Amino acid sequence: MSELRQDPTTEEWVIIARERAKRPADFVRQQAKPELPVFSASCPFCPGNEAMTPPETLSYRDKENQKWRVRVISNQFPALSPEGNTARKLNDDFFISMDGMGIHEVVIETPEHNKALALQEKSGVVDILHAYRERYNAMIRVPFVKLVIIYKNYGPMAGTTLEHSHSQLVATPVIPKQLRTQHKVAARYYGSTGSYLYADMVSHEIKSGKRIVMETGSFVAFHPFASHSAFETWIVPKVNQSSFGDISTNDLEDLAHILRIILLKLHRGLNNPDFNYVINSAPAGDEDKNCFRWHMRIIPRLIELSGFEIGSGINMNAVVPEETAKFMREMKVG
Ligand SMILES: [Zn+2]
To answer: What is the spatial distance between Cα 107 and Cα 193, in angstroms, rounded to a whole number?
Structure first.
C-alpha cells in the first residue's frame, strides 16, 4: 500500500508509492557520461580563457605562481542584474511587476575542465565553500537584497549543458513563497511547542537512525522522512544557525568533508547522476531568528515530474527513503 508522508518543514505531502516500489539499485544510471578533456579551448571557464568571461568578483590563487584555484565571475547572461529599482509597477490596471533587480554570479569550481565536484580533493571543496561564504556575505549586505540562493546544476537533467564544474549564487530583491512557507512553518512550530523545528527534526532523525546517511561533529546528512524524490539528501548543521553566512571556518571544513563524501557516494553508487543542490538560508534581517536553520538539499535528477505532480504539488517518490539511506550508508567510498 502507498503511503502519504508530510514534510514537517513545509507541510507538503509526498506519496511514497510502494505499489510501484523500486530498489535503490534501480536508479543506477545506465549510460556513462562522455569522457572530457582536462582543457577545452572553447570553454570560457578554462584557464587562459579568462578574457571570455565577465569581470571576476573573487578568486583564490596559489601564492607561488598566482594560478587560480577557484574563480567567481558575474554571470554573462544574468537572470537578475543590479540596475533599476524595487518599486512595484501596475500593468493593465491589475498585474504587478518590478525591475529584474538582483545579482547573479558563477563560481568556477576548478581550473580543470573535466574535474567533477564529487572527485575533488577536500581542499578543493573547502575553497569552493569559502567562496560561497565570502560572496554570500557580500551579497546579503547589499541594501536591496532580501535573499541569496546558492545552487549547483550538474548535467542536462539538472538544467545545464556546461561541462566545466561550476555553481551559482543569485541574490533576489524578494523573498520567494517557498522560503516564506518554510519560515512561517518554523515560526508557528516554535510558537506552539516552544522548541525549534529543525533541532527537533534532526534529533529525531538521529534517534531513529533509519534515514541517516552519515554524521560528523557539526553536521548530519539524511534522507528525509517525506523525501520528495529518490535519494533526496539533506545536510543540516547540528547548531542553531539561520544564516549560512555565519558558518565558522571549522564548520566549513566539516561541511566540505560531509558534502564530498555524499557526492562521492552518489557518484559511485548511481554512476555519476545529474543532480542539483541548493543552500537555503535566512532572508536578510532574519539572521537572528533561530526558529529557522540553514540547510543544504541535494536532489539527484533521476526521473521527470509528471502532470499529477505539477497539478497537485504532491511529489511521487517510488522508493522508500529508509532503503536509499541504507544503500548510501553502507556504501564504502574509502
Ligand atoms: Zn573548461
So the answer is: 40
The pLDDT value recorded for residue 17 is: 85
58-108 confidence digits (pLDDT tens):
999 999 999 999 999 999 999 999 999 999 999 999 999 999 999 999 999
In the chain, domain spans: 3-330
Neighbours of 242 (CB within 10 A): 21
Per the CB < 8 A criterion, the answer to whether 81 and 100 are in contact is: yes
Known catalytic residues? 166
Distance (angstroms) between ligand 1 centre and the Cα of 271 equals 22
**Ligand 1 midpoint to CA 257 (Å):** 25
Residues 6 or more apart in contact with residue 178 via CB below 8 angstroms: 10
Q: Residue 163 C-alpha to ligand 1 middle, in angstroms?
A: 7
Q: Which pLDDT tens digit goes with each residue over 119-150?
A: 999 999 999 999 999 999 999 999 999 999 99
Rounded distance, CA 61 to CA 196, Å? 41
C-alpha cell at 12: 507538503
Residue 31 Cα to ligand 1 midpoint, Å, equals 23
CATH dotted code for 3-330: 3.30.428.10
